[in-house]
Amino acid sequence: MFNRTTLLILVAALAAGLGLWAAQVALVPSPAAPSASAPAAPAVDPAQLKAVRLFSSPRPLPAFALEQSDGTALEPAELQGRWTVVFLGFTHCPDVCPTTLSELAQSQKAWADLPEARRPQVLFVSIDPERDTPARTGEYAAYFHPATLAATGSPGALQAFTGSLGLVYMKVETDAGDYTMDHSSALVVIDAQGRQAGLIRPPFVPADIAADLALLSEVAP
What we know:
This protein is of the alpha+beta class. The protein has 5 helices and 10 strands. It has helices spanning 4-27, 96-110, 134-144, 155-164, 206-219, and strands spanning 52-60, 66-68, 73-74, 84-89, 121-126, 149-152, 169-173, 179-183, 187-190, 195-200. The strands form 2 sheets. The chain has an 8-stranded mixed beta sheet with strand order 1-10-9-4-5-6-2-3. It starts with a helix and ends with a helix.
C-alpha cells in the first residue's frame, strides 16, 4: 500500500539521485587549454564512444583502502594497468544490481579474446558491509562472471571511496523492519593509470560498453 513511509522513502531516493546529478555536473571540469603539466587526454575521439562519457581531463583518485573478496587490500595501485568499470551495489539488491552485473558480464565475455594485459575489468563494490562480508561479496559477483573483482570495507572507507568517485548511497529502513540500500546506478570508468576518466549512465547496452572499453584499452594511455 502506498503510505506516508513509502512516500518518504521515494522522496529520499529522489533527493539522493538529484544530489548525485548535481555533484557530477559540478565536478566535470570545463575545457581548458592544454599545458605542459596537465595530464594528456585519452587519444580517443569522444564521438567514437557510444556508452562512455569521458571527462575533459582524468581525475586522480585519492588514497583508499577496501578489502577484496580474497582478503587482500584493494588500493589505488590495484586499479592501474587496465581500464576498470566500477559498480556499486549490494547482495540483497532485488533488481538493479543483478541486472547490471548480468549486463556487464555480457561485456566481459566480449573482452575474452583481448590480451590479458589490456583486457578491461569490472569491480563490484558492496556498500552494505553490515550484511556483505568480502567473501560473500566475491561469491555474489563471481556468480555473474568469475573475473569480476569484488570488494567492500568499513562505512568510513566506503564513504571515502564512493565520495571520491562522486557516487552516493544511503541506508533506507523498510516497513517490514528491514532495510535496503539506495545507491547511484551510474558506472565509473577508471583508466589504466588509476584515474577517474568518465561515466556510463543507464540504460546500459552491453555491446556498446564492450566496444568502448576495448577501444579505450587499445589506444588510450
